């Protein structure tokens, strides 16, 4: 700290005093407290706290003392929970004031906060530095550029954050729909007729396909998606985090096959390689189906599904374990009863345990294609037990997944409502 004297400082929060050394304040977990270390004058100090006593080197904060006590428990032990008998929103307001976020709360308290915020549609923003109009004149160098980048980032990442973002999202959705229509139409027999041509004609066709209307439309769509992905990468805050995001990986998987197919068409020369190249090109073109997942960027329903799967991976793994254990048991028993016992009536469909696994999975999920069925009485009894067990085992984790889905939906709906309010303010302005 460059202001004040003495080896220690005192924080007075709502009448409760806390003493710290100056070096501790430098890397203090609470952002507002750590800002005291860089204060150069009394005016800078008063922008952080409510009052200051130079003689005792004491800083006064007119905040909830009990809430700050729980926040200090988080600083010491790493666990942050709500104050008993205190409103969750009020405590969250105290957290925002001291520089914490909802992610710092323990998981149970995060769920309470999400439920409460979704019910009241309340949004707390981090406090802007004090100073009013005077502060605006003292913007640090590069603030305008950062503000422009942030606005661009929100335009591309949050479809409801502004009018421009909504227009951009609408155009992107139209391109996705057009590309999907072209992909579906390309599988029609009339469109697939050129595939039956000879090798020489096929070579000439692949070279000319880009100039056809479908190839032009595909190239335009790919150009739009590529430009959108590049701009979003440029304006992103953290480039490494941008590359690791699932939706961005899907965008890359949807765009890359087109360029690979073009390069293969250009460099695949002669007849000996054309057959293998044709199969590879068809596989790469079919990977355009990943463009449908791009709609998750613009629809809350698909975002909710992805977030639910992310948060419920333990329940999903538990569901898969249930199914695998049941498959191992019922497939072995069914193979034994239908084919293993030499009773004169062997069911060839159950010749092996892997073959019986197919019957188990379609029975447990109550699909029942009918392509395999037991013919012995013990096998049919086992089939009935398998169906009932499947219904019970599949229903056990559904409750947890359902509650997580509802929570994720309210959370994303609340975030969308927050940006809608900012959009309404933009219309009013």
TrEMBL record:
BTB domain sequence ranges: 7-116
Coiled coil: none
GO biological process: action potential; protein homooligomerization; regulation of potassium ion transport
Entry membrane topology: Multi-pass membrane protein
Membrane-spanning ranges: 163-188, 215-235, 247-269, 289-309, 316-337, 349-369, 381-405
Keywords: Cell membrane, Cytoplasm, Ion channel, Ion transport, Membrane, Potassium, Potassium channel, Potassium transport, Transmembrane, Transmembrane helix, Transport, Voltage-gated channel
GO MF annotation list: delayed rectifier potassium channel activity; potassium channel regulator activity
Residues of the signal peptide: none
KW Translocase (keyword) present: no
Subcellular localization, as worded in the UniProt entry: Cell membrane; Cytoplasm
Gene Ontology cellular component terms for the protein in this record: cytoplasm; voltage-gated potassium channel complex
Quaternary structure, from the entry: Heterotetramer with KCNB1. Does not form homomultimers.
Family the entry assigns: Belongs to the potassium channel family. G (TC 1.A.1.2) subfamily. Kv6.3/KCNG3 sub-subfamily.
Protein name as it appears in the record: Voltage-gated potassium channel regulatory subunit KCNG3
Lineage start: Eukaryota, Metazoa, Chordata, Craniata, Vertebrata
